[in-house]
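Example record used in the benchmark description.
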Amino acid sequence: MEIPVKLNGQRQKVKVVFAKPEDLKFVAQWKKALGDDQNPYRVDTVDFARLAVKRYEASRTSGIYANTLSDITDHVQTNPKVEVASFILLKCNWFPGSEVIGYCHFRRTWSNKIILDYLGAHPHIAKEFGHSTHKVRGVGVAICYFAGQVLKQENCPAIWGEATPLSATYYQGLFELEKVEDLILAPNDKVTAFMQEVEQKWANEDANGAQQDDKFDTLEIENPPFVGNKTAVFSPSKRLAFRFLNLTYNKQVEIALELSLVKPGGKALTRDELSALVFKNAREKGKLAELWNLVKKHYNDEVDEENPFETKVVLRRND
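Model output (structure tokens):
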């Protein structure tokens, strides 16, 4: 799906894609763009992007993930009480330094509501610099419009999520809600009205050929469209399994041999047999921490992340 946004006041298209493992490098690019910047808007959007990726990596191999809109419908038709997760990205070829300019991890719950787990824009879009050569508007609108399409497709009664202190006003204005504090709760009629207003805005711009600032642009300038909670905890074992399984077979074998988790010169193993043996032996030999470190070397991101399998020794002073 392609959705319009504004670049320096002129319409540009972004493509909504369902994330794949090879897309996750965007977080490293955003961190590089952030550098030592401590602006809370830009820091938050990178932090939430990291957590969205962790959620995806920790759950994708053990949960149900949709890779297309029709996948969601197929899962629901098979089991009306199923929870289906998705991780979508906004991609373009015109923003400097990053193909990805927005993200959203969301779920269709067993009670048929849409939960926005994490949502954000590139740090230089979430809070642009005054001298920026690429001023982008509409990332939040584009993502929420897509979420509205899922709501419409599955006839969901509501979209909800956790707003931050910086974004509560944004969602209150976007969906014309009476009040938003930490909880965004947008019923079907409010989401539908938002989508209709956006579609009318796009139609007017098509007809008139003019791009004018509107209430959506104003909302996004004043309050970035964040959704998320920084206190979330994800399973390190599931995340490690996801990352190991997404390495090439040759790299998996190389790691397994380096840690003596398989014997050299043994019988050829399938990918499934190899991964099962690696994790079984890593647990039994106490080498999960070493496995984490070797796997991490193949992912160019989160260099400051602590190894969750390392044992910490706490020294106490005797008074």
